[in-house]
Protein backbone atom coordinates (compact mmCIF):
# COMPACT_ATOMS: atom_id res chain seq x y z
CA UNK A 1 0.00 0.00 0.00
CA UNK A 2 1.05 3.59 -0.55
CA UNK A 3 3.03 5.05 2.34
CA UNK A 4 2.67 8.62 1.05
CA UNK A 5 -1.04 9.30 0.52
CA UNK A 6 -0.28 11.97 -2.10
CA UNK A 7 1.04 9.21 -4.38
CA UNK A 8 -2.26 7.37 -4.76
CA UNK A 9 -2.60 7.20 -8.52
CA UNK A 10 -4.49 5.63 -11.37
CA UNK A 11 -3.99 5.74 -15.14
CA UNK A 12 -7.09 5.92 -17.34
CA UNK A 13 -6.53 4.28 -20.72
CA UNK A 14 -8.58 2.88 -23.62
CA UNK A 15 -8.26 0.34 -26.44
CA UNK A 16 -8.14 3.19 -28.98
CA UNK A 17 -8.74 6.91 -29.46
CA UNK A 18 -12.31 8.16 -29.27
CA UNK A 19 -13.46 5.79 -26.50
CA UNK A 20 -14.22 8.58 -24.01
CA UNK A 21 -11.08 8.91 -21.89
CA UNK A 22 -11.30 12.69 -21.64
CA UNK A 23 -14.95 12.55 -20.58
CA UNK A 24 -14.20 9.96 -17.90
CA UNK A 25 -11.05 11.64 -16.57
CA UNK A 26 -12.58 15.11 -16.50
CA UNK A 27 -15.67 13.75 -14.79
CA UNK A 28 -13.61 11.76 -12.29
CA UNK A 29 -11.58 14.84 -11.38
CA UNK A 30 -14.70 16.93 -10.94
CA UNK A 31 -16.62 14.29 -8.99
CA UNK A 32 -13.73 13.58 -6.61
CA UNK A 33 -13.13 17.28 -6.08
CA UNK A 34 -16.83 17.83 -5.43
CA UNK A 35 -16.75 15.39 -2.53
CA UNK A 36 -13.68 17.00 -1.02
CA UNK A 37 -10.80 14.95 -2.42
CA UNK A 38 -7.79 16.94 -3.59
CA UNK A 39 -6.99 15.60 -7.06
CA UNK A 40 -4.01 16.22 -9.35
CA UNK A 41 -4.54 15.84 -13.12
CA UNK A 42 -1.99 14.55 -15.64
CA UNK A 43 -1.97 13.78 -19.36
CA UNK A 44 0.28 11.33 -21.20
CA UNK A 45 2.02 12.74 -24.25
CA UNK A 46 2.35 16.17 -25.89
CA UNK A 47 -1.33 17.09 -25.61
CA UNK A 48 -2.17 20.70 -24.68
CA UNK A 49 -5.95 20.57 -25.07
CA UNK A 50 -7.24 17.89 -22.68
CA UNK A 51 -5.27 19.41 -19.76
CA UNK A 52 -7.34 22.59 -20.08
CA UNK A 53 -10.49 20.65 -19.23
CA UNK A 54 -8.65 18.76 -16.49
CA UNK A 55 -7.63 22.06 -14.92
CA UNK A 56 -11.21 23.31 -14.86
CA UNK A 57 -12.36 20.10 -13.19
CA UNK A 58 -9.53 19.72 -10.67
CA UNK A 59 -8.96 23.38 -9.85
CA UNK A 60 -5.19 23.05 -10.26
CA UNK A 61 -2.73 22.89 -13.18
CA UNK A 62 -2.67 19.74 -15.29
CA UNK A 63 0.76 18.45 -16.25
CA UNK A 64 2.03 16.32 -19.12
CA UNK A 65 4.06 13.15 -18.72
CA UNK A 66 5.98 12.34 -21.91
CA UNK A 67 9.07 10.10 -21.65
CA UNK A 68 9.99 10.79 -25.29
CA UNK A 69 10.27 14.54 -24.71
CA UNK A 70 11.73 14.59 -21.19
CA UNK A 71 13.34 11.16 -20.74
CA UNK A 72 12.16 8.17 -18.71
CA UNK A 73 14.15 9.26 -15.68
CA UNK A 74 12.11 12.46 -15.26
CA UNK A 75 8.61 10.94 -15.34
CA UNK A 76 8.38 9.91 -11.68
CA UNK A 77 10.00 13.15 -10.40
CA UNK A 78 7.68 15.29 -12.56
CA UNK A 79 4.72 13.26 -11.33
CA UNK A 80 5.77 13.77 -7.70
CA UNK A 81 6.10 17.50 -8.38
CA UNK A 82 2.63 17.76 -9.91
CA UNK A 83 1.02 15.56 -7.25
CA UNK A 84 2.34 17.60 -4.31
CA UNK A 85 -0.47 18.53 -1.95
CA UNK A 86 -3.06 16.28 -3.62
CA UNK A 87 -4.64 13.18 -2.14
CA UNK A 88 -5.00 11.31 -5.42
CA UNK A 89 -3.76 11.67 -9.00
CA UNK A 90 -5.57 10.75 -12.21
CA UNK A 91 -3.49 10.31 -15.38
CA UNK A 92 -5.28 10.39 -18.74
CA UNK A 93 -3.63 8.23 -21.36
CA UNK A 94 -3.07 8.93 -25.04
CA UNK A 95 -4.61 7.03 -28.00
CA UNK A 96 -4.83 3.29 -27.24
CA UNK A 97 -3.12 1.81 -24.17
CA UNK A 98 -0.15 0.44 -26.12
CA UNK A 99 0.04 3.11 -28.86
CA UNK A 100 3.19 5.23 -28.79
CA UNK A 101 6.14 6.27 -30.86
CA UNK A 102 6.34 4.22 -34.01
CA UNK A 103 9.68 2.48 -34.38
CA UNK A 104 11.47 -0.87 -34.34
CA UNK A 105 11.52 -3.13 -31.31
CA UNK A 106 9.31 -5.60 -29.53
CA UNK A 107 8.94 -3.78 -26.22
CA UNK A 108 6.20 -1.44 -25.10
CA UNK A 109 6.10 1.58 -27.41
CA UNK A 110 7.94 4.64 -26.11
CA UNK A 111 5.62 7.39 -24.93
CA UNK A 112 2.59 5.11 -24.79
CA UNK A 113 0.16 5.08 -21.89
CA UNK A 114 1.44 1.62 -20.97
CA UNK A 115 4.99 2.99 -20.88
CA UNK A 116 4.04 5.77 -18.46
CA UNK A 117 1.95 3.39 -16.33
CA UNK A 118 5.03 1.20 -15.98
CA UNK A 119 7.28 4.13 -15.09
CA UNK A 120 4.78 5.20 -12.41
CA UNK A 121 4.00 1.62 -11.32
CA UNK A 122 0.36 2.64 -11.50
CA UNK A 123 -2.80 0.54 -11.97
CA UNK A 124 -4.82 1.11 -15.14
CA UNK A 125 -8.55 1.61 -15.65
CA UNK A 126 -9.63 0.76 -19.19
CA UNK A 127 -12.43 2.90 -20.69
CA UNK A 128 -14.31 0.99 -23.41
CA UNK A 129 -16.86 2.44 -25.81
CA UNK A 130 -19.68 -0.09 -25.47
CA UNK A 131 -21.55 0.86 -28.64
CA UNK A 132 -21.87 -2.27 -30.76
CA UNK A 133 -20.27 -4.40 -28.03
CA UNK A 134 -21.77 -7.40 -26.32
CA UNK A 135 -20.20 -10.72 -25.26
CA UNK A 136 -17.13 -9.99 -27.40
CA UNK A 137 -16.09 -7.49 -24.74
CA UNK A 138 -14.70 -10.45 -22.80
CA UNK A 139 -12.25 -11.26 -25.61
CA UNK A 140 -11.16 -7.64 -25.91
CA UNK A 141 -10.51 -7.33 -22.18
CA UNK A 142 -8.76 -10.71 -22.04
CA UNK A 143 -6.48 -9.61 -24.87
CA UNK A 144 -5.51 -6.36 -23.19
CA UNK A 145 -4.88 -8.10 -19.84
CA UNK A 146 -2.74 -10.88 -21.31
CA UNK A 147 -0.79 -8.93 -23.97
CA UNK A 148 1.51 -7.28 -21.40
CA UNK A 149 0.77 -8.74 -17.95
CA UNK A 150 3.28 -6.35 -16.36
CA UNK A 151 0.83 -3.54 -17.13
CA UNK A 152 -1.76 -4.02 -14.38
CA UNK A 153 -5.31 -3.41 -15.58
CA UNK A 154 -7.39 -3.09 -12.43
CA UNK A 155 -10.84 -2.48 -13.82
CA UNK A 156 -13.00 -1.24 -16.67
CA UNK A 157 -15.41 1.67 -17.12
CA UNK A 158 -18.06 1.08 -19.75
CA UNK A 159 -18.92 4.17 -21.80
CA UNK A 160 -21.97 4.92 -23.96
CA UNK A 161 -24.02 2.02 -22.60
CA UNK A 162 -27.39 1.68 -24.36
CA UNK A 163 -29.70 0.20 -21.70
CA UNK A 164 -29.86 -1.70 -18.42
CA UNK A 165 -29.96 -4.99 -20.32
CA UNK A 166 -26.95 -3.93 -22.37
CA UNK A 167 -25.10 -3.02 -19.18
CA UNK A 168 -25.78 -6.42 -17.60
CA UNK A 169 -24.51 -8.30 -20.65
CA UNK A 170 -21.34 -6.20 -20.60
CA UNK A 171 -20.85 -6.74 -16.87
CA UNK A 172 -21.14 -10.48 -17.39
CA UNK A 173 -18.55 -10.32 -20.19
CA UNK A 174 -16.14 -8.32 -18.03
CA UNK A 175 -16.64 -10.81 -15.20
CA UNK A 176 -15.74 -13.63 -17.59
CA UNK A 177 -12.53 -11.74 -18.42
CA UNK A 178 -11.73 -11.36 -14.72
CA UNK A 179 -12.04 -7.56 -14.55
CA UNK A 180 -14.36 -5.61 -12.26
CA UNK A 181 -16.64 -2.99 -13.79
CA UNK A 182 -16.02 0.29 -11.97
CA UNK A 183 -18.71 2.23 -13.78
CA UNK A 184 -21.21 2.25 -16.64
CA UNK A 185 -21.87 5.59 -18.34
CA UNK A 186 -25.01 5.89 -20.49
CA UNK A 187 -25.04 7.39 -23.94
CA UNK A 188 -25.37 11.17 -23.74
CA UNK A 189 -24.97 13.61 -26.62
CA UNK A 190 -24.61 16.60 -24.28
CA UNK A 191 -21.20 15.37 -23.11
CA UNK A 192 -19.60 16.17 -26.47
CA UNK A 193 -17.03 18.97 -26.58
CA UNK A 194 -16.64 20.85 -29.92
CA UNK A 195 -13.68 19.76 -32.02
CA UNK A 196 -11.72 21.19 -34.92
CA UNK A 197 -8.82 20.31 -37.20
CA UNK A 198 -6.35 19.55 -34.37
CA UNK A 199 -8.77 18.01 -31.86
CA UNK A 200 -11.01 19.50 -29.19
CA UNK A 201 -11.63 23.22 -28.93
CA UNK A 202 -9.48 24.45 -26.05
CA UNK A 203 -11.16 25.19 -22.72
CA UNK A 204 -9.80 28.75 -22.81
CA UNK A 205 -11.55 29.41 -26.14
CA UNK A 206 -14.74 27.57 -25.24
CA UNK A 207 -15.25 29.78 -22.17
CA UNK A 208 -18.52 29.30 -20.32
CA UNK A 209 -19.49 26.39 -22.55
CA UNK A 210 -16.35 24.55 -21.36
CA UNK A 211 -17.38 25.08 -17.75
CA UNK A 212 -20.83 23.69 -18.50
CA UNK A 213 -19.33 20.70 -20.33
CA UNK A 214 -17.09 19.95 -17.34
CA UNK A 215 -20.09 20.19 -15.01
CA UNK A 216 -22.03 17.74 -17.22
CA UNK A 217 -19.11 15.28 -17.24
CA UNK A 218 -18.77 15.61 -13.47
CA UNK A 219 -22.47 14.94 -12.95
CA UNK A 220 -22.67 11.83 -15.12
CA UNK A 221 -19.48 10.31 -13.70
CA UNK A 222 -20.63 10.99 -10.14
CA UNK A 223 -23.85 9.06 -10.92
CA UNK A 224 -22.35 6.28 -12.99
CA UNK A 225 -18.92 5.42 -11.59
CA UNK A 226 -18.03 3.78 -8.27
CA UNK A 227 -15.72 6.50 -6.96
CA UNK A 228 -14.82 4.50 -3.86
CA UNK A 229 -13.65 1.60 -6.03
CA UNK A 230 -11.54 3.92 -8.20
CA UNK A 231 -9.95 5.46 -5.09
CA UNK A 232 -9.24 2.02 -3.63
CA UNK A 233 -7.53 0.99 -6.85
CA UNK A 234 -5.48 4.20 -6.89
CA UNK A 235 -4.39 3.61 -3.29
CA UNK A 236 -3.24 0.10 -4.16
CA UNK A 237 -0.32 1.57 -6.11
CA UNK A 238 3.01 0.78 -4.39
CA UNK A 239 5.38 3.41 -3.05
CA UNK A 240 7.20 5.46 -5.66
CA UNK A 241 10.91 5.97 -4.96
CA UNK A 242 12.85 9.16 -5.61
CA UNK A 243 12.43 12.88 -5.05
CA UNK A 244 10.15 15.39 -6.73
CA UNK A 245 11.36 17.46 -9.67
CA UNK A 246 12.29 20.97 -8.63
CA UNK A 247 12.90 23.78 -11.12
CA UNK A 248 15.52 25.29 -8.81
CA UNK A 249 17.62 22.14 -9.15
CA UNK A 250 17.60 22.40 -12.95
CA UNK A 251 18.81 25.96 -13.55
CA UNK A 252 20.97 28.56 -11.83
CA UNK A 253 19.40 31.92 -10.90
CA UNK A 254 20.95 34.95 -12.57
CA UNK A 255 20.29 38.62 -13.10
CA UNK A 256 16.58 39.17 -13.54
CA UNK A 257 14.86 40.21 -16.76
CA UNK A 258 11.21 40.56 -17.79
CA UNK A 259 10.15 37.76 -20.13
CA UNK A 260 6.76 38.21 -21.79
CA UNK A 261 4.89 34.93 -22.42
CA UNK A 262 1.97 35.04 -24.84
CA UNK A 263 -1.32 33.61 -23.60
CA UNK A 264 -5.02 34.24 -24.04
CA UNK A 265 -7.30 32.33 -26.39
CA UNK A 266 -4.85 32.25 -29.32
CA UNK A 267 -1.78 30.89 -27.51
CA UNK A 268 -2.80 28.11 -25.15
CA UNK A 269 -0.16 25.43 -25.81
CA UNK A 270 2.41 25.46 -23.05
CA UNK A 271 3.78 23.47 -20.13
CA UNK A 272 3.52 24.64 -16.52
CA UNK A 273 7.17 23.71 -16.00
CA UNK A 274 8.26 26.29 -18.60
CA UNK A 275 7.17 29.26 -16.50
CA UNK A 276 8.56 27.59 -13.38
CA UNK A 277 11.96 27.19 -15.03
CA UNK A 278 11.95 30.75 -16.37
CA UNK A 279 11.29 32.07 -12.88
CA UNK A 280 13.87 29.77 -11.29
CA UNK A 281 16.44 31.10 -13.77
CA UNK A 282 15.72 34.64 -12.58
CA UNK A 283 13.10 35.84 -15.10
CA UNK A 284 10.13 37.95 -14.15
CA UNK A 285 7.34 36.42 -16.23
CA UNK A 286 4.65 38.77 -17.59
CA UNK A 287 1.63 37.42 -19.47
CA UNK A 288 0.84 38.98 -22.86
CA UNK A 289 -2.45 38.52 -24.74
CA UNK A 290 -1.85 39.38 -28.42
CA UNK A 291 -5.58 39.52 -29.05
CA UNK A 292 -6.04 42.48 -26.70
CA UNK A 293 -2.73 43.96 -25.49
CA UNK A 294 -1.38 46.66 -27.78
CA UNK A 295 2.03 46.95 -26.13
CA UNK A 296 4.64 44.57 -24.78
CA UNK A 297 4.88 44.61 -20.98
CA UNK A 298 7.16 47.29 -19.54
CA UNK A 299 10.87 46.42 -19.52
CA UNK A 300 10.34 43.33 -21.71
CA UNK A 301 13.74 41.80 -22.50
CA UNK A 302 12.58 38.53 -24.06
CA UNK A 303 9.46 37.10 -25.65
CA UNK A 304 8.02 33.57 -25.63
CA UNK A 305 5.33 32.80 -28.23
CA UNK A 306 3.99 29.29 -27.56
CA UNK A 307 1.71 27.24 -29.75
CA UNK A 308 -2.05 27.46 -29.93
CA UNK A 309 -4.65 28.26 -32.55
CA UNK A 310 -3.69 31.64 -34.02
CA UNK A 311 -5.28 30.46 -37.28
CA UNK A 312 -8.68 30.57 -35.54
CA UNK A 313 -8.11 34.17 -34.43
CA UNK A 314 -6.01 35.44 -37.30
CA UNK A 315 -8.30 38.35 -38.21
CA UNK A 316 -8.20 39.73 -34.67
CA UNK A 317 -4.45 39.13 -34.34
CA UNK A 318 -3.91 40.94 -37.63
CA UNK A 319 -6.14 43.82 -36.52
CA UNK A 320 -3.89 44.47 -33.50
CA UNK A 321 -1.50 46.52 -35.63
CA UNK A 322 0.22 48.30 -32.75
CA UNK A 323 1.42 45.10 -31.10
CA UNK A 324 2.45 43.53 -34.41
CA UNK A 325 4.63 46.53 -35.21
CA UNK A 326 6.12 46.62 -31.72
CA UNK A 327 7.07 42.94 -31.91
CA UNK A 328 8.67 43.49 -35.31
CA UNK A 329 10.69 46.40 -33.91
CA UNK A 330 11.59 44.34 -30.83
CA UNK A 331 12.90 41.51 -33.02
CA UNK A 332 14.92 43.97 -35.11
CA UNK A 333 16.94 44.90 -32.01
CA UNK A 334 18.17 41.30 -31.72
CA UNK A 335 16.12 40.68 -28.56
CA UNK A 336 15.53 36.99 -27.69
CA UNK A 337 12.31 35.53 -29.07
CA UNK A 338 11.33 31.87 -28.67
CA UNK A 339 8.42 30.91 -30.94
CA UNK A 340 6.89 27.46 -31.35
CA UNK A 341 4.31 26.38 -33.94
CA UNK A 342 1.51 28.94 -33.43
CA UNK A 343 4.16 31.44 -32.35
CA UNK A 344 6.04 30.71 -35.57
CA UNK A 345 2.90 31.53 -37.59
CA UNK A 346 2.42 34.79 -35.69
CA UNK A 347 5.93 35.93 -36.65
CA UNK A 348 5.35 35.22 -40.35
CA UNK A 349 4.49 37.92 -42.88
CA UNK A 350 0.96 36.65 -43.27
CA UNK A 351 -1.39 33.71 -42.72
CA UNK A 352 -3.93 33.07 -45.47
CA UNK A 353 -3.65 36.70 -46.58
CA UNK A 354 -3.91 38.28 -43.11
CA UNK A 355 -0.84 40.41 -42.32
CA UNK A 356 1.01 39.36 -39.17
CA UNK A 357 4.24 40.47 -37.50
CA UNK A 358 6.49 40.15 -40.55
CA UNK A 359 9.52 39.14 -38.49
CA UNK A 360 10.13 36.07 -40.65
CA UNK A 361 10.54 36.03 -44.41
CA UNK A 362 7.75 33.46 -44.83
CA UNK A 363 4.07 33.19 -45.64
CA UNK A 364 1.78 30.64 -44.00
CA UNK A 365 -1.41 28.97 -45.17
CA UNK A 366 -3.78 26.30 -43.96
CA UNK A 367 -3.30 22.84 -45.44
CA UNK A 368 -5.56 19.77 -45.67
CA UNK A 369 -2.60 17.65 -44.54
CA UNK A 370 -1.91 16.97 -40.86
CA UNK A 371 1.78 16.93 -39.92
CA UNK A 372 2.14 14.85 -36.77
CA UNK A 373 4.88 12.93 -34.97
CA UNK A 374 7.94 12.90 -32.78
CA UNK A 375 11.21 14.18 -34.22
CA UNK A 376 14.82 13.63 -33.20
CA UNK A 377 16.28 17.01 -34.11
CA UNK A 378 19.74 18.56 -34.20
CA UNK A 379 20.20 22.30 -33.75
CA UNK A 380 21.39 23.64 -37.11
CA UNK A 381 22.89 26.87 -35.73
CA UNK A 382 23.74 28.67 -32.52
CA UNK A 383 20.67 30.43 -31.15
CA UNK A 384 19.26 32.01 -28.01
CA UNK A 385 18.15 28.51 -26.97
CA UNK A 386 20.70 25.98 -28.19
CA UNK A 387 24.26 25.63 -29.30
CA UNK A 388 24.86 24.27 -32.79
CA UNK A 389 24.74 20.47 -32.73
CA UNK A 390 22.53 20.17 -29.65
CA UNK A 391 20.19 17.18 -29.89
CA UNK A 392 16.58 17.24 -28.71
CA UNK A 393 13.41 15.19 -29.02
CA UNK A 394 10.40 17.22 -30.09
CA UNK A 395 6.93 16.88 -31.54
CA UNK A 396 5.15 18.34 -34.58
CA UNK A 397 1.38 18.84 -34.72
CA UNK A 398 -0.07 21.28 -37.27
CA UNK A 399 -2.19 21.74 -40.39
CA UNK A 400 -0.40 24.75 -41.77
CA UNK A 401 2.55 25.07 -44.09
CA UNK A 402 5.14 27.81 -44.53
CA UNK A 403 6.44 29.14 -47.80
CA UNK A 404 9.79 30.57 -46.70
CA UNK A 405 11.86 33.10 -48.53
CA UNK A 406 15.64 33.08 -48.41
CA UNK A 407 18.14 34.19 -45.83
CA UNK A 408 17.77 32.97 -42.25
CA UNK A 409 19.41 29.77 -41.10
CA UNK A 410 17.17 26.80 -40.23
CA UNK A 411 16.61 26.04 -36.56
CA UNK A 412 16.68 22.25 -36.92
CA UNK A 413 17.85 19.35 -39.02
CA UNK A 414 16.17 15.94 -38.79
CA UNK A 415 15.38 12.87 -40.80
CA UNK A 416 11.74 12.22 -41.59
CA UNK A 417 11.24 11.36 -45.25
CA UNK A 418 14.85 12.26 -45.92
CA UNK A 419 16.97 15.06 -44.49
CA UNK A 420 14.82 18.00 -43.51
CA UNK A 421 15.66 21.62 -42.61
CA UNK A 422 13.04 23.31 -40.47
CA UNK A 423 12.45 26.58 -38.66
CA UNK A 424 14.37 29.85 -38.46
CA UNK A 425 17.30 31.27 -36.53
CA UNK A 426 17.75 34.96 -37.28
CA UNK A 427 19.36 37.37 -34.81
CA UNK A 428 17.67 36.70 -31.48
CA UNK A 429 14.77 34.77 -33.02
CA UNK A 430 14.38 31.00 -32.70
CA UNK A 431 11.15 30.00 -34.45
CA UNK A 432 10.03 26.49 -35.36
CA UNK A 433 7.09 24.14 -35.72
CA UNK A 434 8.81 21.80 -33.26
CA UNK A 435 7.33 21.65 -29.77
CA UNK A 436 9.84 20.82 -27.04
CA UNK A 437 9.30 20.26 -23.33
CA UNK A 438 11.46 22.67 -21.29
CA UNK A 439 11.83 20.13 -18.48
CA UNK A 440 13.71 17.97 -20.98
CA UNK A 441 16.09 20.83 -21.93
CA UNK A 442 16.39 23.09 -18.88
CA UNK A 443 19.75 24.37 -20.14
CA UNK A 444 17.88 26.00 -23.06
CA UNK A 445 15.73 27.99 -20.61
CA UNK A 446 18.80 29.11 -18.69
CA UNK A 447 20.53 30.12 -21.92
CA UNK A 448 17.45 32.11 -22.99
CA UNK A 449 17.14 33.98 -19.68
CA UNK A 450 20.87 34.74 -19.65
CA UNK A 451 20.54 36.27 -23.12
CA UNK A 452 17.55 38.30 -21.93
CA UNK A 453 19.51 39.58 -18.94
CA UNK A 454 22.32 40.77 -21.24
Written description of the protein model:
The chain is of the alpha/beta class. It is 32% helix and 26% strand. The strands form 4 sheets. The chain has a 7-stranded parallel beta sheet with strand order 3-2-4-1-5-6-7, sandwiched between helices. Strands 11-10-12-13-21-20 form a 6-stranded mixed beta sheet. Strands 14, 15, 16, 17, 18 and 19 form a 6-stranded mixed beta sheet that branches. Helix 1 packs across helix 9 (208-224). It is elongated, with a radius of gyration of 22 Å.
List keywords for this structure.
seven-stranded parallel sheet, six-stranded mixed sheet, 454 residues, alpha/beta, 21 strands
Strand and helix layout:
Elements: E1 9-13, H1 21-34, E2 39-44, H2 50-58, E3 63-65, H3 67-70, H4 75-83, E4 88-92, H5 113-120, E5 124-129, H6 137-147, E6 153-161, H7 164-176, E7 181-186, E8 195-196, E9 199-200, H8 203-206, H9 208-224, H10 227-235, H11 247-250, E10 257-262, H12 272-280, E11 283-288, E12 300-305, H13 314-319, H14 321-332, E13 337-340, H15 342-347, E14 350-351, E15 354-355, E16 362-379, E17 391-404, E18 412-415, E19 419-422, E20 424-426, E21 429-432, H16 442-453
Parallel strand pairs: 1-4, 1-5, 2-3, 2-4, 5-6, 6-7, 10-11, 10-12, 12-13, 13-21, 14-16
Antiparallel strand pairs: 8-9, 14-15, 16-17, 16-18, 18-19, 20-21
Write a concise synopsis of the structure shown:
The chain has 454 residues and is α/β, with parallel strands linked by helices.
Radius of gyration: 22 Å
Taking the sheet with the most strands, its summary is: 7 strands, parallel
Number of strands: 21
Helix and strand content put the structural class at: alpha/beta
Strand content: 25-35%
Weakly predicted, low-confidence segments: 195-200
Strands of the largest sheet, in order across it?
A: 3-2-4-1-5-6-7
Shape: elongated
Summarize model confidence as the mean pLDDT. Answer: 92
By oligomeric state, this entry counts as single chain
Number of helices: 16
Q: Distance N terminus to C terminus?
A: 51 Å
> In which range does the helix fraction lie?
25-40%
Amino acid sequence: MVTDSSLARVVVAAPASGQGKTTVVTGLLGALRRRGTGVAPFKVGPDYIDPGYHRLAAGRPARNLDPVLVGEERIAPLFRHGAAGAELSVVEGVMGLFDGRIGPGEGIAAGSTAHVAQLLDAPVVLVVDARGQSHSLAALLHGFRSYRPEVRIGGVILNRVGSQRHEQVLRDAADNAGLPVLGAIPRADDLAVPSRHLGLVTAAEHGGAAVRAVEAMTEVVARSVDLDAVCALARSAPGLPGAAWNSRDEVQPQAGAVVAVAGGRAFTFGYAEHVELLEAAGAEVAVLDPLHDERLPERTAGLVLPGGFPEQHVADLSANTLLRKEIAAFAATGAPIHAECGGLLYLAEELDGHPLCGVLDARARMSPRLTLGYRDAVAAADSVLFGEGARVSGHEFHRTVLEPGSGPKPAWLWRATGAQREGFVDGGVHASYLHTHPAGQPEAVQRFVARCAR
